[in-house]
């Protein structure tokens, strides 16, 4: 691994940091999260139009900039530094890679271009906890999308009964074996056949105002049972209800999605390995989240260091006391260790020269380390700010709430590590 960043990578970090310092100060963040969208739409358009942020890791053929997961992680580190509320994670880190991996050529061209340009946003709706659907804390090869009559999300072709859908699933499985010889006939037919979705999903990142929903749904029964991915145009779909959830971290908006006979389009072929695609998306998400958590922790530490240099106690700066210096030194080591792990994970996720084992385990392990560092640093930041840090209005709580919510949403760290150890067979 070459640890030296290119001029282009340094430029991405520098430009994004300067822009966010000017337009996404803590007071700006607090104002943005209380709007209907939950983020600053004008700032998002600038990030998309001037910097190409949502298309950073997409190929140029679909309107992206052709960069990779490392550049995306560097961008997430800067958005984390500003605790930026934005559609970046659900759109660029989750939805776009899934469309690129599973979609047909026509679907990629039609769906990815507006996402890359910032004209539309997207979100992934999965019935199971996100870490399970993305195979970060457990395998995702079971019927987690809704294998029974109740729970999860069910997909059925319009006007077809459950028994007929089961028989269709069996025939599609057989048809998929000869799809290569038929020039993609099965994929084309499935994509043009109308589908209907039924069910609900909780904790959908950015789901309350997104334009496009990617829904992981269960279809078929018995031998034809499987999980597939469907696209729902949230701006026009009937039978779709969305509720914004009350969250600890207002900068990370979550929604409950309810689908009642909602029209949808199948993404890709009926024999697509959706579980594998979701697992690969999970690796990308873990690397991006690890970098974002490092940004949060680094900024919280920088603000704390600046404060203890100014705050006077017993006639001298608080930062001059040896006990405070030792605590800050320990926090610095935590941040830098997490940063190294996050950078390596972002590199290993995409570089073919990385060890095969690290491509699947480095990102979850880096995320576990970054989540712990973020929680420790932001908690200590509140304490080192003294009495003012404990006031609810102080900016230190923006960072602490992000850390606490991330532990609940993307952790816990011990489960991330345990699943990575299981994949690597270190306990076998």
From TrEMBL:
<dbReference type="InterPro" id="IPR036250">
    <property type="entry name" value="AcylCo_DH-like_C"/>
</dbReference>
<feature type="domain" description="Acyl-CoA dehydrogenase/oxidase C-terminal">
    <location>
        <begin position="287"/>
        <end position="415"/>
    </location>
</feature>
<keyword id="KW-0274">FAD</keyword>
<keyword id="KW-0560">Oxidoreductase</keyword>
<dbReference type="InterPro" id="IPR013786">
    <property type="entry name" value="AcylCoA_DH/ox_N"/>
</dbReference>
<feature type="compositionally biased region" description="Basic and acidic residues">
    <location>
        <begin position="159"/>
        <end position="173"/>
    </location>
</feature>
<dbReference type="Pfam" id="PF02771">
    <property type="entry name" value="Acyl-CoA_dh_N"/>
</dbReference>
<comment type="similarity">
    <text>Belongs to the acyl-CoA dehydrogenase family.</text>
</comment>
<dbReference type="Pfam" id="PF00441">
    <property type="entry name" value="Acyl-CoA_dh_1"/>
</dbReference>
<keyword id="KW-0285">Flavoprotein</keyword>
<dbReference type="GO" id="GO:0003995">
    <property type="term" value="F:acyl-CoA dehydrogenase activity"/>
</dbReference>
<feature type="region of interest" description="Disordered">
    <location>
        <begin position="136"/>
        <end position="187"/>
    </location>
</feature>
<dbReference type="InterPro" id="IPR009075">
    <property type="entry name" value="AcylCo_DH/oxidase_C"/>
</dbReference>
<dbReference type="GO" id="GO:0050660">
    <property type="term" value="F:flavin adenine dinucleotide binding"/>
</dbReference>
<dbReference type="InterPro" id="IPR046373">
    <property type="entry name" value="Acyl-CoA_Oxase/DH_mid-dom_sf"/>
</dbReference>
<protein>
    <submittedName>
        <fullName>Acyl-CoA/acyl-ACP dehydrogenase</fullName>
    </submittedName>
</protein>
<feature type="compositionally biased region" description="Low complexity">
    <location>
        <begin position="176"/>
        <end position="186"/>
    </location>
</feature>
<dbReference type="InterPro" id="IPR009100">
    <property type="entry name" value="AcylCoA_DH/oxidase_NM_dom_sf"/>
</dbReference>
<dbReference type="InterPro" id="IPR037069">
    <property type="entry name" value="AcylCoA_DH/ox_N_sf"/>
</dbReference>
<feature type="domain" description="Acyl-CoA dehydrogenase/oxidase N-terminal">
    <location>
        <begin position="6"/>
        <end position="119"/>
    </location>
</feature>
């Amino acid at each position: 691994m070459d640890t030296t960043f290119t001029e282009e990578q340094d430029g991405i970090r520098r430009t994004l940091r300067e822009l966010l310092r000017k337009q996404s100060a803590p007071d700006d963040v607090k104002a943005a999260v209380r709007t209907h969208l939950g983020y600053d739409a004008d700032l998002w358009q600038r990030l998309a139009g001037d910097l190409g942020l949502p298309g950073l890791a997409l190929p140029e053929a679909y309107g992206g900039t052709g960069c990779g997961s490392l550049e995306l992680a560097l961008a997430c580190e800067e958005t984390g530094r500003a605790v930026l509320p934005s559609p970046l994670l659900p759109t660029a880190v989750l939805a776009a890679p899934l469309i690129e991996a599973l979609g047909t050529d026509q679907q990629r061209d039609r769906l990815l271009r507006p996402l890359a340009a910032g004209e539309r946003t997207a979100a992934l709706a999965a019935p199971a906890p996100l870490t399970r659907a993305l195979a970060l804390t457990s395998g995702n090869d079971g019927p987690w999308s809704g294998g029974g009559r109740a729970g999860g999300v069910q997909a059925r072709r319009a006007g077809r009964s459950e028994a007929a859908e089961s028989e269709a699933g069996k025939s599609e499985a057989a048809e998929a074996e000869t799809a290569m010889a038929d020039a993609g006939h099965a994929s084309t037919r499935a994509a043009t056949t109308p589908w209907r979705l039924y069910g609900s999903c909780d904790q959908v990142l950015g789901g309350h105002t997104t334009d496009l929903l990617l829904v992981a749904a269960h279809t078929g029964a018995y031998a034809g049972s499987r999980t597939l991915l469907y696209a729902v145009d949230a701006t026009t779909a009937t039978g779709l209800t969305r509720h914004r959830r009350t969250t600890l971290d207002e900068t990370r908006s979550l929604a409950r999605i309810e689908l009642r006979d909602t029209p949808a389009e199948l993404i890709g072929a009926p024999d697509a390995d959706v579980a594998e695609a979701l697992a690969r998306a999970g690796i990308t998400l873990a690397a991006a989240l690890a970098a974002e958590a490092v940004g949060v922790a680094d900024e919280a530490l920088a603000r704390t260091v600046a404060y203890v240099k100014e705050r006077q106690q017993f006639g001298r700066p608080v930062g001059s006391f040896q006990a405070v210096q030792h605590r800050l030194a320990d926090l610095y080591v935590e941040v830098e260790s997490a940063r190294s792990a996050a950078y390596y994970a972002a590199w290993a996720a995409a570089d073919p020269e990385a060890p095969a084992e690290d491509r699947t385990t480095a990102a979850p392990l880096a995320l576990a380390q970054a989540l712990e560092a973020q929680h420790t640093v932001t908690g200590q930041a509140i304490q080192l700010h003294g009495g003012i840090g404990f006031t609810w209005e102080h900016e230190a709580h923006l960072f602490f709430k992000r850390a606490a919510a991330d532990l609940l949403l993307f952790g816990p760290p011990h489960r991330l590590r345990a699943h990575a150890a299981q994949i690597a067979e270190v306990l076998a």
